[in-house]
Design a protein that fits this description.
The protein is mainly alpha-helical. The chain has 2 domains: 322 residues, no CATH class; 105 residues. It is built from 28 helices and 4 strands. The chain has a 4-stranded mixed β-sheet. Helix 24 links the parallel strand 1 and strand 2. Helix 1 packs antiparallel against helix 4.
Length: 549
């Protein structure tokens, strides 16, 4: 072939690659920024925003590296406060992950449109999109999983050990911070073609990769051992609760070995395994989990809710399942069909088909085993496996000429309808301009401006407590206000003991409305509570005694 003609075709392929890359970044970035959660969230979202601000430790397994990264983002001179910046970090992570998936598929298929379809299908799937616009843990670790995939592909396609070491470090950050992602590790490793790559994996390289893989987990253990201290603000209030209830508390005087053992249990998630507020495995749940996963992955939510409002009104169980089902769709029936078409590339890309299938299967098994109500959030690694299969399904057999035919362009371009449908439908789901969010934002502003006595302690459920801590400690600077998490597993005796201990401390006690729960009790408490506290959902649980504030 004429060299000038070859150079011209290669230049055209490069322009197509750059055009696809730019389209992916602009479209995905715009969708994410337009739906970026603008403020403090509830529950785990608020906890992550708070812990990033305070350099604390989150719920098991602690997410220490993500918190350090969030702290750095919280210091950026952009956006409307710390909460926005931590949300923005997830957008950056989500976008980096999608671009990385595009690069992986581009290298595996050698074609731009299949890589674009696979990457955008993941980008606009509801679970990935949802966690790319608000403070959470799933997309942060998925980014490192995808970077690990990319560096493994680079290692498989080259002789350079540096790619292997980068892959080991990226996968170590992902799995070391969230051990559940180990379920997809066998699938990830299938990207290394055994016959071509085993010779490159000598002992020196394997040992170096192993050290890099384990180093993020070692960092997490050390970080937790140092930062989980009752003298620090983020741990102070729950430590006081545990002291009152007679539970052992970590302090700076706790022996180092004991701190490290506790850190090891916490960062592996062992300390949470037997807690009553975690849903234990149950065969009764498996059927419903499979059912809701099928609804989630099929994209049938594109056509409306699973259960109508009338059904939900008549059956409380259906109302609960509607909330558990979530909103929006992932992949869709057309996307699943494209993923199945990926198996036709078995003869040329058996290792990629095996990797994508194993990632999906491993993640699905974990989803079935760990089934609290929010387990659909755990499905992102499996969606990555499906997105890889989708890229293969859209791709065509490589020919000697890099110039695409008209038929190939038309067929592959038509496959863009899969992410387009997800984008158009899920956009409304991700829109935070709803009346409920507007009311939540107004309440947050009112909480910050309502003056509380200097010795106030608020007893609140976990979700509300994390939001109140952020609002008072980070936004208002009211670190004198104590906020204690009230666990649903506590009985009347623990509650009585807690309240009595706080009163003996000379604290002015308020309960959040969620912690009280009962309407009749709320009306009773309201008689003793100043009106401005009732307006922000806080109630005084007894009349003030003589000498109390």
């Amino acid at each position: 072939m004429n060299n000038k003609l070859l150079d011209k075709r290669n230049a055209g392929a490069a322009r197509g690659y750059h055009a696809a890359w730019i389209l992916l970044i602009v479209l995905t970035g715009a969708a994410y920024m337009l739906t970026l959660y603008p403020g403090v969230g509830q529950g785990d979202r608020a906890e992550m925003q708070l812990m990033c601000a305070l350099l604390g430790t989150a719920h098991p397994p602690g997410y220490c590296l993500e918190i350090v990264a969030g702290k750095m983002f919280s210091l950026l001179p952009i956006g409307a406060g710390v909460a926005w910046r931590v949300n923005f970090m997830q957008t950056v992570c989500g976008l980096v992950g999608i671009v990385t998936l595009f690069a992986v598929l581009r290298r595996l298929t050698g074609q731009n449109v299949p890589a674009l379809v696979g990457a955008m299908t993941l980008a606009f799937s509801n679970v990935y999109w949802m966690h790319s616009v608000a403070a959470e843990v799933y997309v942060f670790h998925s980014m490192f999983l995808l970077l690990g995939l990319y560096y493994l592909v680079r290692f498989e396609q080259s002789e350079k050990a540096g790619w292997l070491y980068l892959a080991a470090l990226m996968l170590g950050i992902c799995i070391g911070n969230r051990l559940s992602e180990a379920f997809v590790l066998p699938g990830v490793l299938l990207l290394i073609k055994p016959m071509r790559s085993l010779a490159r994996l000598n002992w020196k390289r394997l040992c170096t990769a192993g050290v890099l893989f384990l180093s993020p987990f070692a960092f997490n253990v050390g970080y937790y051992a140092v930062r989980e201290n009752s003298a620090l603000l983020h741990a102070r209030d729950d430590a006081r609760r545990d002291e009152i209830l007679g539970v052992s508390v970590m302090t700076s005087e706790t022996p180092l070995v004991r701190r490290l053992v506790q850190a090891l249990r916490y960062t592996t998630g062992v300390s949470a395994a037997g807690r009553q507020d975690f849903t234990a495995f149950s065969w009764e749940r498996v059927g419903w989990d499979i059912d809701k996963f099928a609804w989630h992955i099929s994209g049938l939510a594109l056509f409306g809710d699973r259960f109508s409002p009338e059904q939900r009104d008549q059956d409380p169980l259906l109302a609960f399942r509607h909330r558990e089902q979530g909103s929006g769709a992932a992949i869709g029936l057309l996307g699943v069909l494209l993923a199945l078409l990926g198996f036709r590339r078995w003869r040329t890309h058996a290792y990629v088909v095996s990797a994508g299938s194993a990632m999906f299967a491993g993640n699905f098994l974990y989803y079935l085993y760990m089934h609290p109500v929010d387990n659909l959030h755990f499905t992102i690694p499996g969606l990555i496996g499906l997105a890889m299969l989708i890229g293969l399904g859209v791709s065509t057999r490589q020919r000697s000429s890099p110039k695409p035919t008209v038929r190939r362009v038309v067929l592959q371009g038509a496959c863009l309808i899969v992410p387009a449908l997800l984008l158009l439908t899920n956009y409304d789901v991700m829109d935070y301009r709803s009346p409920e969010y507007t009311q939540s934002t107004a309440l947050a502003e009112k909480v910050k401006t309502t003056a509380l006595p200097g010795n106030t302690t608020i007893v609140a459920t976990y979700s509300r407590a994390q939001r109140l801590r952020y609002l008072y400690w980070v936004e208002s600077g009211r670190v004198d206000v104590r906020v204690i998490v009230y666990r649903e597993r506590y009985g009347k005796e623990e509650l009585r003991q807690l309240v009595e201990g706080l009163r003996n401390d000379g604290r002015y006690i308020l309960f959040s409305s969620e912690a009280v729960g009962n309407e009749a009790t709320l009306r009773k408490f309201e008689r003793w509570t100043p009106r401005e506290f009732v307006e922000i959902g806080l109630y005084q649980p007894f009349p003030i005694r003589r000498g109390e504030q």
